[in-house]
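ok trying again, last paste got cut off:
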Amino acid sequence: MTKGTLYLIPVVMAENAVAKSLTPFLVDTINAIDEYIVENEKTARRCLKEAGLKTPQSDLIIHDYGKHNREGSLKPYFKGLEQGKNVGLMSEAGCPGIADPGAEIIAEAHKRNINVVPLVGPSSLLLALMASGFNGQSFAFQGYLPIDKMARAKKIKDLEGFAERFKQTQLFIETPFRNNPMLEEILRTCRPDTLLCIASNLTAEDEFVKTKSIGDWRKEAPDLHKKPTIFLLYRTK
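nice, full thing came through this time. structure:
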């Protein structure tokens, strides 16, 4: 029996961003399948509706891969795929598999010799890197930094060192309600001539992307509370 294809379906990152975030091919794809593996069922259903899903939502098969459902076997998620059905994988926002637990589903699909097809869509990391003006040929995404204040300060200093030593852009994120303490720590820890790009609420109507030196940011820091944000560090000297 021919196995199905796992389609990696990006999810819009902001309200009213469907038109500039999703491609016609993605819309055609969601109208050709009726089974999904999702990180957040509510978000996924809303995105499918806004994207132009014609299939009645009641006819969809939704496998919830939220944080409370990841300890068991992955086998149930692959029943349809093994039987030849095409299935969509959706993150809570942005691209599946990028800073997202869906990477485990993708890895399992490869082990099962299931075809994986990534669809074009919004990635906050790439959008931030594109808009930063920093090195786009050598960069590293560091994910979440330590919560402990001392460990976090050390990590920021290490990343500043990596940026200088390797001429490599350093990207990292924080839980939105801890963005302001993160920014305060960056401004305390880094040297005045280090460059910091703050990319916040990407694709939203109030999108904010600015690159300035740490010294300039210290004069006027933005309020990032509860705003999804990418932080990027770079040094040109």
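cool. The chain is about 35% helix and 20% strand. The chain has two domains: 5-118, 124-234.
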